[in-house]
Amino acid sequence: MNLIIAGTYRVPPENVEALKAHIADMVAGSRAEDGCIEYAHAVDVTEPGLMRFFEIWRDQAAIEAHFTMPHMTAWRAAGAKLGVTDRRIFAYDIAGQRQL
């Protein structure tokens, strides 16, 4: 069963530009992982410093492996340095999919 991981986090607005290079590295590494179906990050256009992300993974084992990857370790270190806070992360089991 596929999993959707979605959520938000905050970073001081003055650090968003510095964080973008780290986000790009983390997204590229994540997209290359076995089991990654979709991986996206975005700056909220109406609320400075609010970041949004959306991921689809093949299964729970793939997401657990993802959390141990070197690019995720680097991402967490960069986020801590640049003030990432207030992480709100949710997992959703996908029972089915259809186009709207």
Notes on the structure:
With 100 residues, the chain is α+β, with helices and mostly antiparallel strands. It is 36% helix and 33% strand. The chain is built from three helices and four strands. It has a four-stranded antiparallel sheet with strand order 2-3-1-4. Helix 1 runs antiparallel to helix 3. It is globular and about 40 Å long. The model has no long low-confidence stretch (mean pLDDT 96).
Strand-helix topology:
Blueprint: E1 3-10, H1 16-31, E2 36-43, E3 50-57, H2 60-66, H3 70-82, E4 85-93
Antiparallel strand pairs: 1-3, 1-4, 2-3
Give a brief description.
The protein is 36% helix and 33% strand.
Give the averaged pLDDT, no decimals.
96
Major beta sheet summary: 4 strands, antiparallel
Question: Biggest sheet, strands in spatial order?
Answer: 2-3-1-4
Q: How far is the N terminus from the C terminus?
A: 21 Å
Could you spell the SSE succession in H and E letters?
A: EHEEHHE
CA gyration radius, whole angstroms: 14 Å
Structural class: alpha+beta
* Strands, total number: 4
Figure out the total of helices: 3
The residue ranges in which pLDDT falls below 50 over 5 or more consecutive positions are none
Overall 3D form? globular
